[in-house]
Write a structure and sequence with these properties.
Elements: H1 25-30, E1 37-41, E2 57-61, E3 71-76, E4 79-88, E5 91-95, E6 104-106, E7 112-122
Length: about 130
């Protein structure tokens, strides 16, 4: 006899109307077949305040437009950084949650380029 949830004795669960479908992580966040999406492994603890740890893998997308509050991959001079993009008083800044790191202003006078926006996170060590 096979169990069928809709054919039971007793009363039907009122939560049955709220059951979600399956979650497809590949199409929702991790589909790396898109040419603008790629994985980036995090080194260091600069974003612990955002719960992003050393060794985590960020899925980033270069086709997503950056906006205030998102985590981005940016080049600052010849160095790649994973930072939070913030806006204060009409000015854009790259900042980490580390008190040791100074924010970097994003403007025409600095050698800063935002490459991609983080769209997902994979943690293999929980």
């Amino acid at each position: 006899m096979n169990y069928q949830g809709d054919r039971t004795t007793g009363f039907a669960s009122p939560a049955g109307d709220n059951i979600e479908g399956t979650i497809d992580l590949m199409s929702a966040a991790l589909d790396l077949r898109q040419p603008s999406r790629y994985p980036v492994r995090v080194e260091g603890d600069a974003l612990l305040g955002r719960s992003i740890r050393h060794g985590d893998i960020l899925v980033v997308d270069s086709a997503v437009a950056p906006r205030a509050g998102v985590v981005v991959v940016a080049s600052v001079g010849d160095e790649l950084r994973v930072c939070e993009l913030t806006q204060r008083a009409g000015e854009w800044w790259l900042r980490s949650s580390s008190p040791r790191a100074s924010p970097v202003q994003v403007d025409d006078d600095t050698d800063v380029a935002i490459w991609a926006v983080a769209t997902g996170l994979v943690r293999t060590d929980v």
